[in-house]
Amino acid sequence: MSTTMSKPPKRIHLAAHFPGVNNTTVWSDPRAGSHIEFSSFAHFARTAERAKFDFLFLAEGLRLREQGGKIYDLDVVGRPDTFTVLAALAAVTEHLGLTGTINSTFNEPYEVARQFASLDHLSGGRAAWNVVTSWDAFTGENFRRGGFLPQEERYSRAKEFLATANDLFDSWQGDEILADQGTGTFLRDAKAGAFVHTGRHFDIHGRFNVPRSPQGRPVIFQAGDSDEGREFAASSADAIFSRYATLKEGQAFYTDVKNRLAKYGRRPDQLLILPAATFTLADTDAEAEELAKVVRRQQVSGATALRHLEFVWNRDLSSYDPDGPLPDIDPDVSGSHISEGRAQVRMYRDPLATAREWRELATANNWSIRDLVIETGNRQNFIGSAETIARTINEFVQADASDGFILVPHITPGGLDEFADKVVPLLQEQGVFRTEYEGPTLRHHLGLAHPDEVRDERVAS
Amino acid sequence: MSSTSPSPLHLAVALDGTGWHPASWREPVSRPRDLFTAAYWADLVAEAERGLLDFVTIEDGLGPQSSHFLDPDERTDQVRGRLDAVLIAARVAPLTRHIGLVPTAVVTHTEPFHISKAIATLDYVSTGRAGLRVQISARPNEAAHFGRRTIPRIEAYDSPAAREAVTDLFDEAADHVEVVRRLWDSWEDDAEIRDVATGRFIDRDKLHYIDFEGGHFSVKGPSITPRPPQGQPIVSALAHDTIPYRLVARAADIAYVTPHDAEEAGAIVARIRAEQKAAGRATEPLHVFGDLLVFLDDAPAAATARRERLDALAGQPYQSDALIFTGSAGQLADLLQEFQGAGLTGFRLRPAVAGHDLPAVTRDLVPELQRRGVFRHAYEAETLRGLLGLARPANRYAAATA
After folding, report:
1. Considering only CB atoms, which chain B residues are within 8 Å of A92?
2. How many Å lie between the alpha carbon of B232 and the closest alpha carbon of chain A?
3. Is the minimum CB–CB distance between A192 and chain B shorter than 8 Å?
4. B108: which of A298, A327, A442, B137 fits an S-S bond (Cβ 3.0–4.6 Å)?
5. Computed over its alpha carbons, how large is the radius of gyration of chain B?
6. Which residue of B has its CA nearest to A119?
């Protein structure tokens, strides 16, 4: 690299997504362990911490997925309660950030704020909240209010939910607890925790009962991709869990979102872009390519391929041959969707156009249904030797396709082990990834200021 | 000496801040500045486990503590603020091996779907040591923290309006527990099949909708969390009167009751057993634990002096729903055995000062009970159900389809 370059290389952020209920997770592999026992979570978290990762990430869905009116059975099904397993993981790790996905529709701010504040206390400042929204009556059937929220109001509720939670986090300044045994003064301020929030979605008041936690507030993640979602992130989030892990798409997303920050009085370094990324690692690039093909066929069985085609066709395609051509009939765009509890189906906004495009692709490449599903959906983001993967990740980050990656291994719980042992040391040698944790909290790892410093900065400017 | 050995009794400790006396935080042995750290709770639970106790409960609430029964106060001379009890329990679970972990959950404003998976997950992270203490909230200020409904103000406890309000809250609690329990059973134990030949991870015929419909909520299911290791983690509740006796008789594994003498203990047990029979659960095991607040010292006079000193610091004598015991471990052992003779199967001791009275329980009371042959010398089971002598229950849905 030229010494005249003045800009120092960006430091990469890395996180680990516990393999979840998508078909990227290969449960059929002989090495695949339990997806529910704590020992799997502990193994995964310890590997991430050994590799000096920024944080562990957990997704969440509040109703088991269904397709054609039946519980979807081809992928991993079942997962723990997010808060509870993260609190337990705080006991087996010391530095690793703990990021949980928590829904703003089927929860209430007082309860969620005290859970995150508690998690932040119990982990010594390592809590993060991936704020997600849903509105569907399908998920609502598991909750008191049912499907109460119109789709167009989900971000309005999410924004107000987060603002309300922030009011609660900020209702304690951090200096209220005196606990002076001699004078008998426990609280400096009788009104500690007092709050009033009046808004369209929440009208609450009283006293919050968890004192200020080490990070002030949990680190806030956002994962939505719509224009509204991007604005929400630009206004309120510390990081985005994005799905654009390729160079060009990543750069476009990165530029788009970072350019939205200025109008909220924020700097580009106050919002991190962290795409989810899959990988296949082997001794050589050629071996990795071969292995990646094998993994993709494990991820997409014939049955899985047909069910995935149904996301677009919205019809029962079980009579089709997954090794044969795509259906001649067009998708059903008339009524309700065959698949429930799955955000992925919303990506196909124009099913007729997608079906047309896929038929053309399949014909041009002589792809079967299964080939098509594999090629359009399951190509791993990083394939190669440790050297190749380390180099590519670094290139992507330095080229502003992201600020790092949330890695999604395909094997539970050992799928991160090899990455930790082989790729991380190379990134450390290049000086773009930490060799030791530099501070105790997740905000330290991510280079994010404490909310009090951000507030002071805004007041000063 | 009797030819039959005395039956063992069960022992739990109720953890609440620095202890149950409001001035407990001022004792030099207390660590009020550590209350919001994991290490504080890990130390308390480790001490309880050293004493081979069956379990600890952890108090909680959806608003600040208060010296008033239903209203908040603005006192600055007592501990205010607390961490979520389920998360404290989860945080200490990997650091302990045998002791049961029974956090409190308020059921009035919370979602049974969330509570069910939280306790199921606590059961996973503790490998079979989870329980739940359900609690209602009749506090108008806590309702205002949620803004979803108004809780009518209870002016006089014996008024018909108050009775109706309390009955409604306990009916909702019973529905809540029913949903929590059905969700725990909504996966059969062998639902995960990993059948590579057919590509199926689960046998979906072994997952069940619970289709609960009640006056306060409807819940479809199944849970997102598979059936926990114990099948059904322990459900417990504090009960002071007929309405809550009915709840524990219908829905719980353990009732905590507050008799002030052996005669009253016998009467309460009889009332709970009658409610149990009325609920059609006469043959099912239901523990009835006596709650006692304890000041324990080698010399009884020292315990009394400590109580007086703390009352003076608090500015008023501490009053409790439970009997307040002051005395030595030997005297307490006498009392527990007397209460046991009246039908109680165990005790939940509330340490007046956690830093003093918890070690007194584990280091003085427990050896005393062991000498008398009524308490374990080592943990004899891997799960909380096992410690309590409760079998792992069959799955209600598996039984229905077998």
Report:
1. 94
2. 16
3. yes
4. B137
5. 21
6. B87
Dist. CA A119–CA A112, nearest whole Å: 10
Quick check: B66 contacting A, CB < 8 Å? no
CB of A173 less than 8 A from some CB of B: no
Positions of E strands within B258-345: 287-296, 323-327
How many angstroms away from the CA of A5 is the closest CA of chain B?
46
CB A332 within 8 A of CB A313: yes
B20 in reach of chain A (CB within 8 A): no
- Please report the residues numbered 179 through 198 in chain B whose beta carbons come closer than 8 angstroms to any beta carbon of chain A: 187, 192, 194, 196, 198
Decide if A142 touches B, using CB distance below 8 A: yes
Label residue B4 by pLDDT band (50, 70, 90).
low
- The structure tokens listed for A372 are 């098509």
If you search the block for the tokens 């308390």, which residue do you land on? B44
- In chain B, positions 319-348, which contact chain A (CB-CB < 8 Å)? none
CB contact under 8 A, B63 and A209: yes
Confidence of residue A170 (pLDDT cuts 50, 70, 90): very high
CA distances (Å), A240 to each of A24, A254, A422, A432, A446, in order?
A: 21, 10, 27, 21, 12
b/e per residue, A301-337, with b = 16+ CB within 10 A?
Answer: bbbbbbbbbbbbbbbebeebebeeebbeeebeeeeeb
What value of ipTM does the predicted structure carry? 0.97
**Within an 8 Å CB–CB cutoff, is residue A29 touching chain B?**
no
> Out of A126-140, A421-435, B387-401, which region has the weakest mean confidence (pLDDT)?
B387-401
pTM of the prediction?
A: 0.97
In chain A, where does the domain assigned CATH 3.20.20.30 lie? 13-174+192-284+380-460
Cis peptide upstream of residue A211 (ω within 30 degrees of 0): no
Tokens of B33: 């500045």
Share of chain A above pLDDT 90, in %: 87
- Given a contact cutoff of 8 angstroms between Cβ atoms, the answer to whether A117 and A86 are in contact is no
What is the pLDDT of chain A when averaged over all its residues? Answer: 94
- Reported as a pLDDT band with limits 50, 70 and 90, residue A26 is very high
pLDDT digits (tens, 9 = 90+) for A398-413: 999 999 999 999 999 9
Going along chain B from its start, the domains and CATH numbers come out as 10-138+231-401 (3.20.20.30)
Helix (H, G, I), strand (E, B) or coil at B28: coil
Contact A90 B91 (CB under 8 A): yes
Q: Which residues from A are below 8 Å from B79, CB to CB?
A: 186
Q: Is the CATH number of domain A13-174+192-284+380-460 3.40.630.30?
A: no
